Structure formats: C-alpha cells, structure tokens
C-alpha cells in the first residue's frame, strides 16, 4: 500500500483527489492537511465522503508528512516548492498540482507567477507529468509538476501534428472553454452562481498563465518556433473543458492520413480516445472520468485542421492525471483506481 | 458471473444501468435490446461508454434473453409484464424499473396507468424492491418491482416514524423536488433546456402516479390509514431528488428520541446515511452514487417533524436500487459494484 | 420628476432598482452611494447599464441625499435606520429594502437581527410596503419597510384564506424555493456556481428571519393565532421564487368558492395574477417583471388547499415592489415604469 | 399605429417578437397565426403574456394578413417565400426571420437549405436587414431578410477591419458560442435539459448554414476573397451569443488605431457598444436587450487581432433586429420600443 498525504485538501482538486484515492486499491490515506480546518472531519466539509473517508484535516506540523511515500500538493502556487526539499530528503515523492514544477525556465515562472522560485536547483529533476508524452521520465521521477488543465488539452491535441511536422507551429490558435470549477473553491464574486450562470465570457485574452507552460512543452515536439494564441472562456457548467484548436497545414495531407496520425499516436493510450473523423465530442462524455477525447475536422476541405478536445478539468485536467502519474511512479498498472465510467447524463 | 440482459437500454435508466454494470465485478452483460437501434453500437449513442461497453443494441427477438440469468426492464410501463411470464418459465429472473410490478392492487394499477394488467396472477409473487424495508423477500424473489424514485425517499423518510407510531399517518405531506432526468429521455418541449433551465415549477399537484404506490407500501408499516399529500416539483438540475416531509407528532418525543428512531432503523444500512439532527443534506452529496441521506428538523420545537431526504434519482432512485436488488437475489454482497464515491462538486 | 437616491447600489437589489428606475418616466436619478466604489462609474460594475446610467458611485457624504425626494436603501440590515431620522428631518422619504422597518416589535427585531433598533420611535409610523394589503397607508407614508421576498409570496398566497376565516391558521406550512440571487452579491463559498449549480437543498429549516415578519403581518388578517412552518430551499436558478403553501380547510368550501375568494381579492390588482384553478405557475413566467402569479389546488378533494405562488424575487420580491410603493407615495399611477413583459424563455 | 401580423408565433423568435411588440408604442398587433393552435389564447402557451396579449392564435386563412401593414415570419425556412408575393401585391411589407431572403444567390440557397427558391425574382429587391451596414436600403425595403444570429456578430465584429483593409480576409476564424434557445422550440433529444445542461460541445464544424450568408455579406465590404472558418458551439445557457473572432493583420496598426476603427464605425449606433480595448464582454450584459457589445484584444502584441462580440441571440440576433428594421421601414425613430435595459443578473 502506498502511504499518501495531501497538502491542501479543502479545494476542488483536493476533494477530487480524495474521491479518487478513497477507492484506489493500493492507497492508504495518511493525512490531509489544512491549517485552517485542523481537527475537522473531512466528511464534515464534503458530505459526499461521509462513511468513505474517516480522516480529519490536520495542521501541517502534526501531519507527519515525511512518513508518507508520496505527497500531493493541492495548494496555491508557491506552497509545494517550499516543502519539497525537506520531503525529498526524507525519501518522499512529490506531485504538485499547482505550477511550482511545471516550468523549467525560472524567469518565465517568476514573470507569470510573481514570486521567486525557492528551489530552482530542483527544477532540473522535476518531470512534467503528462504521461502520454513523458511516460518514461515520470516512472523515475521524484518530483512531478502536474500539468495545467488547459495545457493538457492543447498538448494532446497538437502533439501528433507537431511531431509529424505538418502544421505551421508559429500560428496556432487554441480557443478553449472551461467549466467554473477550474477557478477553484475561492469565494469570489465573479464565480457566484448569480454571476456565472446563464452567462458566457472570455477572460485573460491578453495573456494567461497556462500559455508559457504549453509553449515550453510544445517546443520539445518540433524544431519550429511555437506561436500560440490561447483564448480561455468560462462556461456555465461545473466540470468540463473543450478546446477548439486551429492549425494551418503546411503539407498536403488527406483526412485519412490526418486521422491516422492521431490514431497511431494514441493507440495504446488508456485515457485518450480518438473519435471518428468529423465527430463532435461533448464534455459530459468524460464527466468525472480520466478520459480525454479528440476529434478532427477539416472544414471546406481547406488548409486548416480543427482539433476538438474534451476532458473533465478536475480529473484528466488535474487530480486524475496526478493519480495516473503516481501509478507510474510506484510501478502500478497505470489505470489502477482510474477506470470510472463517465457519468452521463 | 451473472448473465444480464437489459430491455430498453436507450433511456436514462438504461444507460445508468450500463454505467453501473460495466464495472460490476460479477456481471457479464449479454444483451441490450432496442428495436429501433438494432445493430447500433451502444457507445455510439452514449460516448461515455466508448471502450467500456462493446455490445451493440439488438432487436428483442435476436437477443436470446432467455439465456440470461436476469433481465432488467428499463422500458415504459407495460413492457415488462408482457414478457415476464416467458422469462420466468425459462428460469430467468426479472427486475422491472417501471411500474408493472409495483402495485398489488390491479384496480389501482389500471386506474393510474390506463392499461389492463396482463399477468395479475404474477403480482402476488412480485416483490417490492426496497431492500431497507423488504430485504428478506427480495433475496428469494423471481420478480422485482423496483420502486419509483419519489416513493423511495418518502418511504425511507417516513418508515421509522410510522413504525414507531408517533405521527399522524392520516395527514402526511411530502413536498418533493426532482432533477429533470426523472422525466426520461423523451423529446418533449417542456423538458427542453430553454424551458426547464432557470425555472422552477410544481407539476401533477392534483395527482401523481407515485402516490398510490407509496400509500400502499406505507400502509404496511402502520395500522393507521395513510393520508398522503404528495407535491412533485421540477428542479433545473440533471440528477438529484430532495423530499421535504412534514409529519405531525402524536406522541411526546424529544429530538434525541426522534433522531434515535432513525439511527436505529438504519444503523446497518450501507446506503442510508442518517445525518446529525438539524443538518441540511444537499442533493449533490449523493450525485452518481447509491447513497440516500436523511436529516431531521423540528422547527420552533413544535409538533411537526420535518424530514429532509436526498438521493440521486437515477441511482438509489432507480438503477442503483435495481442493482442492489440483483445483488441480494444472487447472494452477492449487497454493496458489490455500488461503492462509487459521490461526484461533488 | 422625482429626485431619487440609492444607498448601496452595488448589490443585486441595488442594480435591479437601477434597471427599473433607468426607464421610469418620472424619475431623475440623483445619486447612488458606495463608499468603497466612490468615483467608479456605475456602468463599469454593471456593463448592462452602459449608455443608460451615466452616474458614478459616490461616497455617502458627497451624495447630497437630503436634496432628494426619496431614498432607497439597498443595504444590509441596520444601515437605513441609522440615516432615516436625518432624512425625514430634511423632508426626504425613505424606502428600506432591508428589514429595519419591517417589524413593529423591536424585541423580535433584535432577537432575529442581533442588533438594537436605533430609532424605535419611528417604527410606529413606518408602513409595511405590501400594496395589495396596505395600499392606503403606503400612499401617506414617509417610511416604508419593503417586504421580504418570501413574505410577499406567503402573505399574498394566504391572505384571502385567512381573511375569509376558512383555514386553520395555527398549522400553516409554506415550503418555499428561491433562486440564488436572493442570497445577494456577497462572495460566499456556498453561493459559488460550482457549489450551487446542479444542486438543491433546504436551509434555515429550524428558523429563518422571514418568519417573524410574515407571522406579524398575517396576524393582522385573522383573530386566530398564527402558526407558520416556513421551509426555505435554494434552487439552481438566478431569479425566481416558488412557494408551495399548505392550509387545512376548517369550513366546507368547494373549489369554485375557493377560486372566487382569490379572484375577488385580487381582481383589481395590476401585479397579482390569479391563474385558473389547477394551474402550475412557473417562475420564469414572471422573470424580470413585477408580476406575481397564484394558482390553487385541492389534491384528492381533501381537506387541504395547496396554494402555488411564483414571482421574481428581485422584482415583486424586492426592487419592483419598492418602486410600486414609490409610485403610490408620490401619487403616480401605480404601474408607472413597471409594465415590463416577463422575459420567457 | 402600424398593423402587425406574425406568422408562426409559437416558437422562440415568435414569442420574443410578441414580448417586444406588446410594449411597442406604435404597434397594433392584428394577428398571430398558427394552424395547429388555432383558437388558443396566446397567453395560454406563454403565461408571461397573460394580461398583456389578448389575441388568440388564428389559422392562417382566417388571419386577414393582407390587411396588415407588415408581416413578420417567425417560421421555418421556406414559409415566407411562399406567401410573400401575395402580401406584396396587397401592399404589405414582409420581414422574414428565417433564411428565405438572406441569400442573393439561389444556387447557394438551394444547396444549403435543400429546397428550391419559389420566388427568385423577388430576391433582387429583398434587403439584408442589418441596419448598421445597410440602413438606407432597409428604409426603402418591402422585403427584409433578417440576418442570422451568428452572422450578425461576425459581420459587426469584422466590418471595420475589412472596410479598412487591414486584415487578411482569406483566413478569418470565428469561434462562436450560442445559448440553447438558438435551436428553437423543437422537441429534440439533443436539446433536452438533461442533455444540454452541464455540457459543452461544438456542432456543425464541417459546415453550417450561417456561413454562406456571412461570406456573401462580408464580400461586399472588401475586394479580397473571403475565407471564413466558422465553428459554432452550444453553451448551457438559454440566451446569449459570444463570438471570438481571429483576424491576421496585414498592415501595421497600433492598438489605439485599431480601437479607433471600431469607435468611428459605430459612434452613432444606438445598439452597438464598443467597449474599452482589452475588455471582456459578458453575454448577460446584453440579456433580453437589443444591444451588441464588442471588445478588441491583441494578445502578445502579435499580428492577430481578437474581436469579442456578444449579443442576445433572440433580440439583436433575431426579433429585436427585426423590430429595428420595422422601425426604419416605417419612418419611426430606430430605437422605438427597443430601449430595454439588459436584465443582469
């Protein structure tokens, strides 16, 4: 049994980890920290866990995290990097669901996250936790920077095209739409039901933190310079993410060849589903599961390929992907504890 | 392995059965019938099942239902009773998610469902599939009438009070609220998103089919004559049911004693959660799980007890309860395949 | 032109007042105060008002409220009573959308609102602003305590029955459901989209502030002692309120006579619509309008009458009713500026 | 007073016309036809109109449409063109909210709408009813082809750029998102609440009927050949449309100059609001009003301008625009009856 601790279990990625880990057959949950809620039974905050998670939140200093095998950080940016050196020294692995270990370039990190990086020396060994593109490194990693939700869709939607060198990497457009849970469990007026319901808007159009991470990773797949225009939008739904990606073809390629690029790339992937050419994936077809689905279009038989990608932003976009990484790091079957059938309707 | 067939797999209770049975460790899915969709892969209609359910729908006559161990009917009222005699004769058990086997009184059935009952001789052996009140009979049953969604909440919310004889059974009020999936997957204008969203209404206030079934079952718990005022409402959410039940106390009873009635009644029940006195259960705390939660209130320390009951109408209110019955009928652990942690948020 | 000031224009009742007053032909908007947003154009906070409301928020001390004819308080409880004496002295009328002037009994006020009442001497002249039951007094009032949203539905739904003396006033039940905007524009976790969407729950079952106000007002309609069990619920919709009211008949009365009680009571009311007996009013049929609709039911021809009442909680339940009062106080046609057709769908 | 008839008043554009016309000071509603609902009071279908619209639906042959001044067709494609010749002959003007008179090229019409055009000779005089680009012609028109909802946003979002010749017209991308009411009031499974709620998807990615209309109209604004990639998506909200438009700049232009293009183009337009550069318009800021809002972005100071456009698809995107055209055709102030303040929240 893997002894697991969670730092910051009160947010949505924290409770989603708890939902997944509560039924994971190889996991023993040791501690869930929250300074503010020290002593409160977790199930009092999340009644969905009544009878399923018996632990109470504990203040970090009481949590004996160094006795765990792995710690998930479901915290704001900056928390994981402060604690990681001590955990590593104690032989504990770290999976950070925030951004502390996503970017190799500390200058870029500091520009976008407005804080100095406290352990740049560890960045080099940190592994970007996207199994479909990085599986081998994840297996050997001590530190995982779990990908952002949007970046997961953009990378898996673009990787086959960039690797094959068939699109103009300098003019990529990703028009992305996310459910509201992506904003987390913070009390903000803009995320109130009465504000976000029956409404649709773009946000962060002039620049969003998920951009540099995506550009850095996509850059590994091609020698072209990456130019990415990323536009996030807020959808009045709790979970779900839909990315509509536009890439201009630079090589003659018929639709069957395009489709084959994706089918070949993902044919052994348990959590990537390449749908038939021309399909319209719905976010709900992945709800509460670790599955990501992709479909390709080529409108008017023109020179632009449109890639549609859907996932549950809290699962494949966050907590599920983190568990997938944990499975790999501990030599388990990658799908262990992650085979939930999507809840649809 | 239990060989399972589903008649009518295209509706919401059908796909929910598929979701649950796809990961049930003791079930082998043999056939899912749909005359209209004969030959269509099930996963084409429900992409949530891609990679998880390989079967195609088959026309009933091709489905070899008599070779199954049990058939679930997720069909309109009237279908199950037509096929049950033949299935029983072949040694196949039947679980009907519609109303054909819920009511013992055929006159009542015919009044509310506007059709003659085609096998009244089988009604006597049909068992009402509410395990918490009827477990022993279910274990031995060949035919299960799976309870309606509203009746499940009303019965489990009222049973401890009626059995203890502490309330006026003649003036019960159940003000119930259901998510829209309760109306099924029928193309009806009133259930369109643009009609049902951002809206709330009562319906069937003057009389609803779930009333006679509830009255018949509640009558078994008390010698008083049941008087039930049941008011259903439509909530703009997909899943979830909340019943607010009002019962006038006829005996002096303090809150601790009231609470004890419920805790004692359900202390060994895996799918009934009695919350602390005064709690406010939320429907989402049961979403996609087979759990039902109850909390008690006694406003102003008056003579009326208010019982709040929540469940997922498609799981404990329908498909999950049916699987719970199947587990009992085949001697399995009652919770097999039903331990999903609710998806919240 | 009536010179109008609004204290506290940043919340939902404030912006709703602005929406209504912006097109009111007899109103000149003088000032909208907000200490926090002093100087910010109102339309920057509410882009719906771009080009329609040119004012900026002003700090209270700059707002010259004493030069207005009437001030609306769309503030938390306690603010209006602090400023009313000075305004009255300057000849300014006051309409408070909070609770400061709703309750005549200061002990009750202080018990429920946890603050002393700062001007109990003014309570006697304060008028409860429900025009359908209190029109004459409103016309002459200097201070209006604008009714709560729930109390409006409960009073208009029960008044004809209580006045006629045909129901048991000691055992009334009001099972009420409100859209989320009723909770206001406060940043609270429980009101986040990801918490309140796709969910339904009761709250405040053991006691809610709208109860004493309703009991006090209902008491004026009958000599019986009022016993009211009021259960509020939260519906995942922005606007709308639905009250399902249960009253036990104490006199023989057929359905036509019941219906006549209501039709007679409201036949001249511009904002109360008595629908045909047995109808199911939908909240959306009143969306964004000042209309309230009522329908009666008598299930199983039993001894309980069920009254269904719907309104838009922000209009007839708050800002619209306040404008209706203003019209009366200034001798205008009562419907002036309030004849919006509901937005449906 | 303008005598108005509506053909096909049972759908969402029909009821929205009724909402707007019921308070239009210069309109007298003469007839609303529906063969199926002949004789049914309109307010029985739409209780929002109780007390506001006294008419009943009438069968077309009883409706005396030729005695009206103008007929709105809120019907499926193909109905208006069948009746227009007779109406014109009787001196009645026609405003078609469907596609019969939107496309000048009958071959294109027939390809996309799968029906022959029954009066191609009238197409030449038909005027495309987008006042901001076509005002003079509308004033003199007898026949209006009212624009589609998506095309309205795409044209008003692109017109200033195309007229100024500063973007590559051959590679325009419009990633558009619509509320569900755009699908109309048809009983379709895909539009059920339980399907469309808590979900997001693209549709018609390989080709949508609003594309040819947009291309034809945009072609009038530039000598470049139009290449438009239009991707519609379905948002779980009733009303609202958000278009995210990407255009590659072909001339050096700073942000102030870009902004000036739009502000100059629309400075006298009552229903187009150019927001500050970098703003994020929300659909709800236009809810139930005829306003359309635009904001510009230029991410990373790159070569692509992103234009965000929002409107209420049923108002500026349909019924409101039709009334705006009517006002122009009858010499009224263009804003008459259309100055509703958006309902927000």
UniProtKB/TrEMBL annotation, chains A, B, C, D:
Q: Name the family.
A: Belongs to the NAGSA dehydrogenase family. Type 1 subfamily.
The reaction(s) catalysed by this protein are: N-acetyl-L-glutamate 5-semialdehyde + phosphate + NADP(+) = N-acetyl-L-glutamyl 5-phosphate + NADPH + H(+)
Supply the PROSITE patterns for this chain: ARGC (PS01224)
Q: According to its UniProt entry, what is the function of this protein?
A: Catalyzes the NADPH-dependent reduction of N-acetyl-5-glutamyl phosphate to yield N-acetyl-L-glutamate 5-semialdehyde.
Where would you find this protein in the cell? Cytoplasm
Q: What is this protein called?
A: N-acetyl-gamma-glutamyl-phosphate reductase
Top-level taxon in the UniProt lineage: Bacteria
Q: Which Pfam families match?
A: Semialdhyde_dh, Semialdhyde_dhC_1
User: What EC number(s) would the UniProt record show?
Assistant: 1.2.1.38
Primary location: cytoplasm
| Family annotation (NCBIfam families) | argC
The pathway that the record names for this protein is:
Amino-acid biosynthesis; L-arginine biosynthesis; N(2)-acetyl-L-ornithine from L-glutamate: step 3/4
Q: Where is the active site?
A: 149
Look up and give the organism this protein is from.
Answer: Collimonas pratensis
Task: Tell me the keywords, alphabetical order.
Answer: Amino-acid biosynthesis, Arginine biosynthesis, Cytoplasm, NADP, Oxidoreductase
Annotated Semialdehyde dehydrogenase NAD-binding domain ranges read: 3-141
Name the Gene3D superfamilies for this protein. Answer: Dihydrodipicolinate Reductase, domain 2 (3.30.360.10), NAD(P)-binding Rossmann-like Domain (3.40.50.720)
């Amino acid at each position: 049994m893997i002894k697991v601790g969670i730092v910051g279990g009160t947010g949505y990625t924290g409770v989603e980890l708890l939902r997944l880990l509560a039924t994971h057959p190889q996991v023993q949950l040791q501690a869930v920290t929250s300074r503010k809620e020290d002593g409160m039974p977790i199930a009092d905050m999340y009644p969905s866990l009544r009878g399923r998670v018996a632990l109470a939140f504990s203040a970090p200093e009481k949590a004996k995290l160094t006795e765990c095998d792995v710690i998930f950080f479901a915290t704001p940016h900056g928390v994981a990097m402060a604690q990681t050196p001590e955990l590593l020294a104690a032989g504990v692995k770290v999976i950070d669901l925030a951004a502390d270990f996503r970017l190799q370039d500390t200058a870029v990190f500091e520009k976008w996250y407005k804080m100095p990086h406290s352990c740049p020396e560890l960045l080099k060994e940190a592994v970007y936790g996207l199994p479909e593109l990085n599986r081998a490194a994840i297996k050997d990693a001590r530190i995982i920077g779990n990908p952002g939700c949007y970046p997961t869709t953009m990378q898996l939607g673009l990787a086959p095209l960039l690797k094959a060198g068939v699109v103009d990497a300098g003019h990529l457009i990703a028009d992305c739409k996310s459910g509201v849970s992506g904003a987390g469990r913070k009390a903000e007026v803009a995320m109130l039901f009465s504000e976000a319901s029956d409404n649709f808007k773009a946000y962060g159009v002039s620049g969003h933190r998920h951009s540099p991470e995506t550009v850095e990773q996509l850059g590994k797949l091609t020698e072209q310079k990456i130019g990415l225009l990323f536009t996030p939008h807020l959808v009045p739904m709790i979970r779900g993410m839909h990315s509509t990606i536009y890439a201009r073809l630079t090589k003659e390629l018929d639709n069957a060849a395009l489709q084959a690029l994706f089918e070949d790339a993902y044919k052994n992937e348990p959590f990537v589903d390449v749908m038939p050419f021309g399909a319209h994936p719905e976010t709900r077809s992945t709800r509460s599961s670790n599955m990501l689905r992709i479909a390709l279009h080529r409108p008017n038989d023109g020179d632009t390929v449109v890639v549609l990608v859907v996932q549950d932003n809290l699962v494949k976009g966050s907590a599920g992907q983190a568990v997938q990484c944990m499975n790999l790091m501990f030599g388990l079957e990658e799908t262990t504890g992650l085979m939930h059938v999507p809840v649809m309707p």
